[in-house]
Write a structure and sequence with these properties.
This protein is of the alpha/beta class. The chain has 4 domains: 152 residues, NADH-ubiquinone oxidoreductase 51kDa subunit (Rossmann fold); 90 residues, Ubiquitin-like (UB roll); 106 residues, no CATH class; 62 residues, OB fold (Dihydrolipoamide Acetyltransferase, E2P) (Beta Barrel), CATH 2.40.50. The protein has 16 helices and 19 strands. 31% of the residues lie in helices and 18% in strands. The structure holds iron/sulfur cluster (2 copies). One iron/sulfur cluster binds next to α11 and α13.
Length: 439
């Protein structure tokens, strides 16, 4: 690999690569940092998802190439792919593709093994500070899907116009589909043959995903669509608002502390105490103090609500509290880097099997097969804001003829952001403040 770091970073920036597995942090910015270690995140810890497992088995060489490009750009000396021990086929494929500088690191089958903080600790033994990010301890973590996009951008100049999406849940045929960004979610979900005519659609995993409607359009960060029956307990929980959660918490939280016992960020040593935020609800949860500031440390992993015997959601309460604190102009006050993991960390890791049982998902946890046809519709709706940072600024104008890969929106000046490209051949029909419509 003779390419200079600046050239690699520019190619990734030009291609509009953002994190596939989370909120969509622009990858070129991560790659420009100086790091000691690069970790490809292949834990895929959200229950019933299969997309990353498919990519690791089928595209191991591209993932490993992506790790090497990020190592070059960041001058890292060591690379890892973090997987679960149970991903045997994937481990073999990755080992075959990896060189001596890249280790395939195996982890247990627990949730949330893919949380960046957890993975950094498992792989390197380092602990990300409170409210920190992996680079604070010299580590870059990228999802395996992101690394495929990195290698495609660097080696072939291919921009991000396609997404692998798992469609699963209450469907006849769980599938993994490769589709154009901007495709309507309802059309993708229909390919898996939902068992009921009416269903809830969740964008993402059962733990962290959000309810969407069928007109939602696939973005660079859409990893899965889950079809849930409305009468499933998970669907009812997803429908509850933060305010409802707060009201329920006031009446039935018995302070058993199960939520805090399992909280991975608490176990890693951060000062976040889910049971205390529930108690705070009785008084004033909108004042900034060491308990409410814990809301800024919450990863929204949802384990607290899965563990709660009263079916309460400290996660939603933390979310509401954080929004209210921000509205009042408050910022996080918990930023210690002197962090020691809880002595029970190993013993309290939450088994993924137990989680699937607890969520009532055992019957829906099935293998997904790769859908044989790439889905490229006649018209797409491409969101201008698909990444952490600022929305992209449209370059295209209504009436412009575009091809797949044409740059249609760019990173705003002096901002964190990502380029956007057309995912189909067609004409720009309309642009509003949120979308570019191509048909
Ligand atoms: S687990 Fe549930 S009932 Fe127990 S303290 Fe936490 S929120 Fe309250
Ligand atoms: S969602 Fe719950 S378990 Fe997860 S980090 Fe936040 S408080 Fe802890």
């Amino acid at each position: 690999m003779n390419m200079e770091r600046e050239e690699i970073i520019k190619k990734v920036r030009d291609a509009g690569v953002v994190g596939c597995g989370g909120a969509g942090f622009p990858t070129h910015v991560k790659m420009a940092a100086s790091a000691e270690f690069v970790i490809a995140n292949g834990a895929e810890c959200e229950p019933i998802l299969k997309g990353d497992q498919y990519l690791m088995a089928e595209k191991a060489s591209e993932i490993i190439a992506g790790v090497k490009y990020v190592m070059t750009s960041s001058s890292a000396s060591r690379g890892y792919v973090g997987i679960k021990t149970k991903y045997r086929r994937q481990g073999e494929a990755l080992r075959k593709a990896a060189g001596p500088a890249i280790e395939i690191f195996e982890m247990g089958n627990f949730y949330p093994a893919g949380d960046e903080h957890v993975m950094v600790h498992e792989v390197t033994g380092r602990i990300v500070p409170e409210a920190g990010i992996p680079i604070d301890v010299g580590v870059i973590v990228d999802n395996v899907g992101t690394l495929i996009n990195v290698s495609q951008a660097v080696e072939k100049g291919i921009p991000v116009t396609r997404k692998y999406v798992t469609v699963t849940g209450d469907v006849e045929n769980p599938i993994i589909v490769r589709c154009a960004i901007g495709t309507r979610a309802g059309d993708i979900a229909a390919l898996a043959n939902p068992r009921k005519a009416n269903y809830m659609l969740i964008n993402g995993g059962p733990m962290m995903g959000d309810i969407i409607d069928e007109n939602f359009c696939i973005t660079k960060t859409t990893g899965a669509l889950i079809v849930m029956p409305f009468d499933h307990a998970l669907a009812s929980r997803k429908e509850r608002s933060g305010r409802t959660s707060q009201r329920r918490a006031k009446s039935i939280c018995d302070q058993c502390m199960d939520c805090t016992i399992v909280c991975p960020r608490n176990l890693i040593g951060h000062r976040i105490y889910p049971h205390k935020i529930m108690r705070m609800n009785f008084f004033d949860a909108e004042e900034l103090n060491e308990i409410t500031s814990g809301s800024f440390l919450c990863s929204q992993c949802g384990l607290c609500e899965a563990a709660c015997p009263q079916d309460l959601s400290p996660r939603s309460v933390f979310k509401s509290v954080k929004e209210n604190l921000i509205k009042k102009g408050h910022r996080n006050i918990l930023t210690s880097s002197d962090v020691t993991p809880h002595g029970m960390w190993e013993l309290r890791k939450f088994s993924a099997h137990r989680l699937v049982e607890r969520l009532g998902l055992a019957k829906l946890d099935r293998e997904a097969v790769f859908y044989p046809k790439e889905i490229v519709p006649d018209k797409v709706k491409i969101a201008l804001h698909q990444n952490v940072g600022a929305a992209s600024v449209p370059l295209a104008r209504p009436g412009d003829e575009v091809k797949e890969g044409t740059l249609i929106a760019k990173i705003p000046e002096k901002s964190l952001g990502a380029n956007l490209h057309s995912s189909i051949n067609g004409t720009v029909v309309k642009i509003d403040e949120n979308y570019i419509y191509i048909g």
